[in-house]
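task queued by scheduler; priority normal; single chain, no ligands, no partner chains; default sampling; output format set to structure tokens
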Amino acid sequence: MALPFYGLLSATALDPIEKKPLHHFLPGSAVYSAGFVGCNMRCPFCQNWEISQRTEEARERVSPRELVEAALASGSPSLAYTYSEPSVHFEYLIDAMRLARQAGLYNVLVTNGCLLEKPARELLTLTDAANVDLKCWSKEAYRSRLGGDLETVLAFIRLAAGLCHLEVTTLVVPGLSDAAADMEGIAKLLASLSPDIPLHLSAYHPAWKEDAAPSSRGDIENLAALAGKSLRYVYIGNVAGSRADTICPRCGAAAIRRRGYATDAGGIVPGRAPRSAACSSCGAPLPIRL
């Protein structure tokens, strides 16, 4: 079987792990990131449409072994598959992830979660941390407007919650994902898996085919407060000056302070379990992987 785009990347870069975004996995670390082209969805507001909806941006062919070697040379502890939808390059991901594991690297997957159970399980068993885009709470909008399937994404999220570190992102698009009732549904679904799953609410700005006004700071803050009734950790992204500190739910101290991608993890100490964290102020265990 021919795989003409096997190993074709749109970019490689050394990113802050918070850019994925992942706030509770190796905070403050750098992650070597491999970008792809193409996507299995057609979101009209795609912020990376130049690489998700076109293939001309594929710049270089990199074998899985070359990719892992580059990640190791960067000094990063982890390798991310990101920028456009990586799961459409499933065969390449499996090959690269296996080699990364053998080399002692952590695998980070940034995905829309539109993958059926069997391949999803195969991919997630090789994944150490995932950020899943949950676009909205409407089955009809997922199908007709975005070209995806909500139930498939929710099944992926449930599976990921049991197989790897999981964080979820929702881009707050006016008229699609900014309804209070829908945000309550998203938050309650995640809380039913674990109230410790971080939810990132990211501000939308007009892109590709979508020209609606940008989501407002006030609307996003209100949605974050609503989601925070069910979840312990809700973060706001793409809003200038917004705070994204990790707050200890027991004592209220700032365990991790963030300003943009600058991270100060001075408020956490190693926990009792390997690679776990605790609040340096009160000693409470925190759902942060070190």
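post-processing summary
- The chain has a mean pLDDT of 96.
- The helical segments are 49-52, 64-74, 90-102, 117-124, 139-146, 150-163, 180-193, 217-227.
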